[in-house]
Design a protein that fits this description.
Structural class: alpha/beta
Pfam families: Melibiase_2, Melibiase_C
Number of helices: 13
Number of domains: 2
Strand order of the largest sheet: 9-8-7-6-5-2-1-10
CATH topology of the largest domain: TIM Barrel
Bound molecules: 2-acetamido-2-deoxy-beta-D-glucopyranose
Organism: Malus baccata
Shape: globular
Helix content: 25-40%
EC number: 3.2.1.22
Distance between the termini: 68 Å
Family: Belongs to the glycosyl hydrolase 27 family.
Catalytic activity: Hydrolysis of terminal, non-reducing alpha-D-galactose residues in alpha-D-galactosides, including galactose oligosaccharides, galactomannans and galactolipids
């Protein structure tokens, strides 16, 4: 029995791998102006913002042209979910205006499904989800939002509910029949089978289901998914789970930074969901969390109770100028470009945007306020270039003609985030 399953599995794998190579051959061209495409290929630019892998790893399902935005139940609710919470969250995304800002995925995480029935079909918890997932999807769709669900590339989910390993085709068909728009696919109880073998069958099954479903690979960065998952998924986790602490958030930002060259329209590095609003960090720390996630082109999946946000939480997650950096069509992941000070805690993070603009974050990871300076050298700008500087948290122009460097005082664990707009051609060493 087990042997037959494995043979079948290998056969499916070979089949799906050949489909994958086909998919790569006909991949989408990233939505870019020709000129921008050229400029990100210039060698001097690539010394700082390596984009050599940009756009080469794309799942051709038309999704994720910009990082996904929405909400996920796990960080705040864990297993305490039911259809009322999900519906009220959808209502709150609409009434707060967050949906209009782009937060459209309403994603149910683990614990929605305790069992399979005699036919082997997943059955939603009859107490928590008495109306079923199809009815919930209809409700969410009725609001113009999208529904996400969760399963696992293993025998069980992390909370020991049924996993989808060897049930990929049936489960994908069921999700599609319910109108599911997004699948987060976790990595627990994986029987020691390598991720590169467990994640392709679900990619194939979702594709064959005929419904366009966002495939969010949650492999925790174990097998360096940036190197291969772009052919399979629309995003791939690069790290272990985040928790609601400064230590976790900063460590994860650094780990995710390593894979910046691999992100691009169609597939994104995923440093995990937002903790903004859950209480474990200060306002300044949450503002840094949100700014860096936006700059890194991370998925912006709110992880708090959006039915009950403080004004500060709302201010952070609703910052349109910061969201615009995340959703910029150029889709190049911003990264750490300079560190100085004790333990390298004065940091400059930056990334190019469409329209020859730059997003720049001055991030103070020390415990005392300090001035942090971004040099044009570190950003890859020609030294004589003059830029106007807009502060994306103060929502105002703070300099009209900065030349060669720009610095500001930054509070402990806080950041400042700017948009730089050069007045002339900005790239270095171009005659
Ligand atoms: C399935 O994959 C093919 C080839 O990559 C793609 O063109 C098509 O849009 C995909 N269909 C779905 C439903 O994802
Ligand atoms: C949160 O993550 C940090 C950094 O990885 C770790 O040191 C800490 O133990 C974690 N806290 C909890 C409660 O898991
Ligand atoms: C709303 O959040 C506050 C903390 O910000 C908490 O004290 C309160 O219990 C929450 N209310 C509900 C109804 O969850
Ligand atoms: C990095 O920042 C430090 C401190 O501001 C500065 O001395 C150094 O020149 C910067 N490096 C580059 C390459 O700009």
């Amino acid at each position: 029995m087990a042997k037959r399953k494995i043979t079948l599995f290998l056969y499916t794998l070979i089949l799906s791998l050949s489909v994958v190579s086909l998919a790569v051959a006909v991949r989408l061209t990233p939505v870019l102006q020709t000129q921008e495409k050229l400029s990100i290929k210039r060698p001097t630019f690539n010394q700082i913002f390596d984009t050599s892998k940009y756009g080469i790893l794309q799942l051709n399902n038309g999704l994720a042209q910009t990082p996904q935005m929405g909400w996920n139940s796990w960080n705040f609710f864990a297993c305490n979910i039911d259809e009322t919470v999900i519906k009220e969250t959808a209502d709150a995304l609409i009434s707060t205006g967050l949906a209009d800002l782009g937060y459209v995925y309403v994603n149910i995480d683990d614990c929605w499904c305790p069992t399979r029935n005699f036919e082997g079909q997943l059955v939603p918890d009859p107490i928590a989800f008495p109306s079923g997932i199809k009815a919930l999807a209809d409700y969410i769709h009725g609001k113009g939002l999208k529904l996400g669900i969760y399963s696992d590339a293993g025998a069980f989910t992390c909370q020991v509910r049924p996993g989808s390993l060897y049930h990929e085709s049936d489960d994908a068909k069921l999700f599609a029949s319910w109108g599911v728009d997004y699948l987060k696919y976790d990595n627990c109880y994986n029987l020691g089978i390598p991720p590169k073998e467990r994640y392709p069958p679900m990619r194939e099954a979702l594709n064959v289901s005929g419904r366009t479903i966002f495939y969010s690979i949650c492999e925790w960065g174990v097998d360096d998914p940036a190197l291969w998952a772009g052919k399979l998924g629309n995003s791939w986790r690069t790290t272990d789970d985040i928790n609601d602490s400064w230590a976790s958030m900063t460590a994860i930002a650094d780990l995710n930074d390593k894979w910046a060259a691999y992100a691009g329209p169609g597939g994104w590095n995923d440093p995990d969901m937002l903790e903004v609003g859950n209480g474990g960090m200060t306002y300044q720390e949450y503002r840094s969390h949100f700014s860096i996630w936006a700059l890194m082109k991370a998925p912006l999946l709110i992880g708090c109770d959006v039915r009950n946000m403080t004004a500060e939480t709302f201010e952070i997650v609703s910052n349109e100028e910061v969201i615009a950096v995340n959703q910029d069509p150029l889709g190049v992941q911003g990264r750490k470009v300079n560190v100085s000070g004790p333990d390298g805690c004065y940091q400059v993070w930056a990334g190019p945007l469409s329209g020859d603009r730059w997003a720049v974050v001055l991030w103070n990871r020390c415990s005392k306020a300090n001035t942090i300076t971004a040099t044009w050298e570190a950003l890859g700008l020609k030294s004589g270039v003059s830029v106007s500087v807009r502060d994306l948290w103060q929502h105002k122009e703070v300099a009209v003609d900065a030349v060669s460097s720009f610095g500001a005082q930054v509070d402990a664990h806080d950041c400042r985030m700017y948009m730089f707009t050069p007045h002339t051609t900005s790239l270095r060493n171009i005659a």
